[in-house]
Amino acid sequence: MKVLTKTRFLLLIFAMLTVFLFSVRSMAQQEERPDNPTTWKYFKILANADDDSVFSKIQDDLNIDPKLGSYTVIVNILDPNSANWYVVIGDEADATALRFSWTQIKKDNQDKLIAWTGANKENLNKKKYNYGSVFLDAIKKIRVKEIIAPPKKEREIISTTSYINPYFNFFGGDPLGIPLKKSFGFSFQFGTPYSGPFETDLVGANFHLLGAKVGITTRIKEFVLKHANGYFDPTGLPGQANSTFGNYNNIVAPRIGLQAGYVLPFGNFFEISYFAVIDTAEWDPLLLVPNQNGDLAQPYMPNIIKNQGSYMNFELRYPFRTFGSTRAKIYVAKYFGEIHIGYMGRELRLAGSVFDLRLDYVVDNPQRNWQFLGEIYISNIAEGFGLNSFALGPSVRLTRSQAGGIGIVTAMLNARFKLGDFFDEK
């Protein structure tokens, strides 16, 4: 009887130890760890439907229509009482933001949100800071696999849909491309794909079909400063004083131009086009800015006046994703006889910020001086449904100054609107 009682006692102790160890292990698994996003209970995700289908599916669960291409989702499952768990679409501090119960999202979609480990996921629970946080906090959020990634959209790799672009840039950048039916549609440009604010007066519209395009361009003289009143002979014009920013290194478009192009059908990596001047009529030509570096062969700072002739253009590009961006690419291009080297990306997500980035370098050539264009547009300005629909930021052009050094030719604001996704790729 004593042996039986002792055995039962030992079994009871063993059972209690087993329960205790499993409880400790379970608590350790549930404990939130800053370095493990899957343990976070209160977090924000800068969601993009291109990243994963879950960001479209949760909109189905929450009956959000029309669908959002990019938005912010906040999850709070901290409270011990699961009835208080909630989801917010938009800014939690905004009283008009959409708030839902956590249970309105299907279980498999809940699991995917909790298990998400991308750099666009941010822990909103209180965390401790130290002296190194100012340097390292943003770096810790970077995921190496998301710095560079392959495209995820058909339109980014197929030649017949490469023109589709929901981003309307105020000055320069890729044309706004609106499809009527996939490979058939229109695009509209304000400036060249490589120009910045008040660099050129060119505007145009194009028709696209199966990778080919044909379009017409004209000019809006107010897009380039500064003009004289009426027509005059530039050779007889005295030197004009420069204004706050340089009125040089600009491109003046013809009154009417015709352009045609084609994207090679082996993928979206090479586009060739032709531009011809149809109407050379001029009005209000640019004022001339004196060259102060003593170059007698070039008494005025250069501008390009495209009022005659024709031009073969091309763009060799490589589309990819940078920090979860959309429509990112690096390129080497020739446009109006100039070589361009650059990078462009929309909606990059880094350290809790969403922004656009555009960099373009014009190689020094006989027509005008070298030039570097740098633009960064900050998104997340609006709230709710307009969170990523608008982005605004500085645009700076650097080139050779009047005195021969490096100077700022323009420093202004540029912006873009995102009009939405024009078709859904299954």
Structural commentary:
The chain has six helices and 22 strands. By secondary structure, it is mostly beta strands. It folds into two domains: 37-141, no CATH class; 154-418, no CATH class. It has a 15-stranded antiparallel sheet that branches. The longest helix is centred in the first third of the chain and has 29 residues, at 2-30. The protein starts with a helix and ends in an 8-residue tail after the last strand.
Tag the structure with descriptive keywords.
426 residues, mainly beta, 15-stranded antiparallel β-sheet, elongated
Short description:
The protein has 426 residues and is mostly beta strands. A hairpin with a 3-residue loop joins strand 16 and strand 17. The N and C termini lie far apart (73 Å).
Number of helices: 6
Strand content: 35-45%
Oligomer: single chain
The counted number of beta strands is 22
* Largest beta-sheet details: 15 strands, antiparallel
Q: Level of helix content?
A: 10-25%
Outline type: elongated
First and last CA, distance:
73 Å
Q: What structural class is derived from the secondary structure elements?
A: mainly beta
Radius of gyration: 29 Å
Average pLDDT score: 81
Number of domains: 2
What order do the helices and strands follow? HEHEEEHEHHEHEEEEEEEEEEEEEEEE
- What are the segments in which pLDDT stays under 50 over at least 5 consecutive residues? 24-29
